[in-house]
Amino acid sequence: MVPMKKVSSSLALKLALVIALWDYSSIFCHAEINIFGVTKHVYVINSLSAGNTLSVHCKSKDDDLGQHDIPFNGVYEWKFKMQAFERTLYWCNAWWYDHHKLVSRSFEIFRAEDVDRSCGPDHKLCHRKFQWDGIYFEKEDGTFAKKFDWVRK
C-alpha cells in the first residue's frame, strides 16, 4: 500500500505542472506560439504572366494538400504548426505550360532549418513567387531571390 502523503504530493506536483503548462500556452496564444510550435503561413504566388495557370501539389510527411490550380496573380496559402526540433518539411511539384510545352519543378518549398533565411522579416509568412524564369523565395529583408530554375521539356 502506498502512503497517502506520497500520493498527495505526487498529485500536487502533477497538478502544478498542468497549471504551469496551461499558463505558458495561454500567454503565447495571441502571438501564434504555444507549446506545440509556431504557426507558419506559406503563400504560393503565380507571377508567371497573363493567361498562365500554375498548378502545384504540395505535401509533407503527414499532410497531402492536394493539387491546386492558381490563376495569374492568384495566391494559394496554407498554414501549419512547426514540429519540434525543426523537422517540418513540405515539398511540391509545380507545373505550367509555356506555348504548349510543359515547364515543371519538384522542390522543397519549406524546410524548418531555412525559415530564418526564407520566410521574410517576421519569419512567419513564407512567400514563394513563381515567375517564368524560376521560383523565388522571400528573404529575411523582404526581397526575393531565385531559389530554383524550371525544368523545360
Automatic annotation (TrEMBL):
Alphabetically ordered keywords of this record: Secreted, Self-incompatibility, Signal
Pfam families: Self-incomp_S1
Cross-referenced InterPro entries: Self-incomp_S1
A Gene Ontology BP annotation from the UniProt entry: rejection of self pollen
Signal sequence range: 1-31
Main location: secreted
Superkingdom in the source lineage: Eukaryota
GO cellular component terms, A-Z: extracellular region
Keyword GTP-binding: no
Compartment(s) where it occurs, according to its Swiss-Prot or TrEMBL record: Secreted
Family: Belongs to the plant self-incompatibility (S1) protein family.
Protein name: S-protein homolog
Lineage: Eukaryota, Viridiplantae, Streptophyta, Embryophyta, Tracheophyta
